[in-house]
Amino acid sequence: MWYFTITTTTLWSPLVLLLLLWSPPPSSASTFNHGETVKNLIRNLNLFPPHDINILANPNVVPTDKNNKIVEKPLRFPNFSGEGEGISLDDLAHRAGYYPLQHSHAAKMFYLFFESRINKKDPVVIWLTGGPGCSSELAVFYENGPFKIANNMSLVWNEFGWDKVSNLLYVDQPTGTGFSYSTDTRDIRHDEDGVSNDLYDFLQAFFAEHPEYAENDFFITGESYAGHYIPAFAARVHKGNKAKEGIHINLKGFAIGNGLTDPAIQYKAYSDYALDMGIIKQADYDRINKVMLPACELAIKLCGTDGKIACTTSYFVCNTIFNSIMSHAGDINYYDIRKKCEGSLCYDFSNMEKFLNQGSVRDALGVGDIDFVSCSSTVYQAMLVDWMRNLEVGIPALLEDGINMLIYAGEYDLICNWLGNSRWVHAMEWSGQNEFVASSEVPFTVDDSEAGLLKNYGPLSFLKVHDAGHMVPMDQPKASLEMLKRWTQGTLSRSGDDAEVLVAEL
Ligand SMILES: *[C@@H]1O[C@H](CO)[C@@H](O)[C@H](O)[C@H]1NC(C)=O
Ligand SMILES: *[C@@H]1O[C@H](CO)[C@@H](O)[C@H](O)[C@H]1NC(C)=O
User: Fold this and answer.
1) 64-76 pLDDT per residue, tens
2) Fold of 71-262+347-504
3) C-alpha of residue 80 to centroid of ligand 1, in Å
4) Burial category of 440 from C-beta neighbours within 10 Å (exposed 0-12, middle 13-18, buried 19 and up)
5) Which atom in ligand 2 lies closest to the alpha carbon of residue 79?
6) Is 91 one of the annotated active-site residues of the chain?
C-alpha cells in the first residue's frame, strides 16, 4: 500500500524542469501542502490516525529491557476462542512485543509473531507492508494474517492465512509507524541503510529470544514500497551471515509483490500499461512520453542509487506522469483498475483502527498508551529522498549466491504495475539472465484453473497473478497461499497439479 501526491497536473516545460532539477528541495510551504495531500491519500483508505507519527515525549508503555532485549508477551485477542479450525489456541505461540532498536536513540519496534498452525518447522516468513509508513497490521487483518475482523469486531480465522505454511512475523516500521515509537526525532529513517539495519537488529534479537526457530528456513516478503525495503534487508542479512555477525540467519529467499524496485523502468511502464488497459488515449500517451518521461528519466539518472536532493526532485518530476494519467482516469482505483474509488474511499480499512483502538485489544497487545498510527504521513515524507533510488543493483549478487527471488504482481494494479515489474526482472543482468529471458511462461495452476503465469530460471521467478490488484493476498487469498507454499518448498517451478501432489506427499 502506498500513495502518490495527486496535485494539479502541471505540464513541465523544459525550462521549468531545468530549474527544478537544479533547485533546492521544495520550500516549507510546498512541503506543508504535500503533507496535506499525503493525509488525504491516507483518508482514501478510510484511515484516520490520531498522529502523523509516533514520536512522543513521555510514552506510557510496558517498560522495556535495559539490555536491548526483546520484551514479549503471549497474545490472546479478547473474545476470540479460535474455534473452528481444528486447532487449539493453547497449542499455538502467538506473541506481541517491543524491541528497543540497538542502533537508535530511543526507538522501539513493535512486532507480532504467529506460529504456524501446521508445523513449527515451517519456514519463518517476515512480511513488510509499504507506504512508506503504513503499518503491517494492514496485512495481518486484510491480507495474509491468521484472522480477519468481522463487522461485529470479532475475529475469525483466515482460511488462507500464511501461518498455514509458515511461522509469520509482522513488524511496524520504519520507526513511528503502527505501534512502533520513539521519544527522539533523530530516529526517523530516511533511507534503506537505516531501515535495513533496524530490521537486521530486530531479527538478531528475535532469534536470540527464539533459538528454536533460528534453524528454520527464513524468507522475507512484502509489498509495494517494500520493493525498496526488501532487497536492502536481504542484502543486509546476507552481509551479516558472510561476516559471521551475530546469529546466522537461514535466508533462503525474498519475495516482492507489486513493488517499486527499479524506478526508471517502473515509471516508464506507466504510460504503456495505461494505454494497454484503455485508461489513457494515444494522444495522452504521446504527450506523456514526449514531455514528461524524458524529464523523469533524466531526473532518475541524476538520483542514481545514492543521490540526495536530486532524488527528492525526481520524485516530484516523475510523479507528474502518474498524476497526468490519473487526471484522465477519473475515479478509478489505482490499486485495482477494475474498481472505482467510491466517494473519497478507495478502500475501507477502518475496522482495523476500530479494532486496534479497543482497550481490551490494546491490553492484549501490551502497547500501553501508544496510539495506533495506521499510516504515517511523516514517515512517508521522510522517505521521499529514498523513493527514486534504484534498489535492483544489489539483487544480482544475492542471486549468484543462490538466494531465491520471487517477484509477483496482481495484473490490475496501476501504481506498481506488473508490466514494470516484469521489465526490470527481465532487464536485470546476472549469470542466468539469458536463460530466464528465454524460458517459457507456464500456467500457475490452483484448483485446476490458471491463477497466473509463471516464469522461472534457477533462483529467479516471476509470477503475474490473475484477477488481482495491488494487494494480491487480499484479492486472491488461496492462490497467494499456494504461491508462498510452493515457492518456500521449492516446487513453484513445477507449477500446476503435479506440484500439488508432490506437496501432499511430503
Ligand atoms: C467482548 O465481549 C464482551 C461481552 O460480550 C463485550 O462487552 C466486549 O465489547 C467484547 N470485546 C471485544 C474486543 O470485542
Ligand atoms: C460476529 O460475526 C462473526 C462472523 O460473521 C460470527 O461468526 C459471530 O458469531 C459474530 N459474533 C457475535 C457476538 O455476534
Assistant:
1) 666 678 899 999 9
2) Rossmann fold (3.40.50)
3) 10
4) exposed
5) 13
6) no
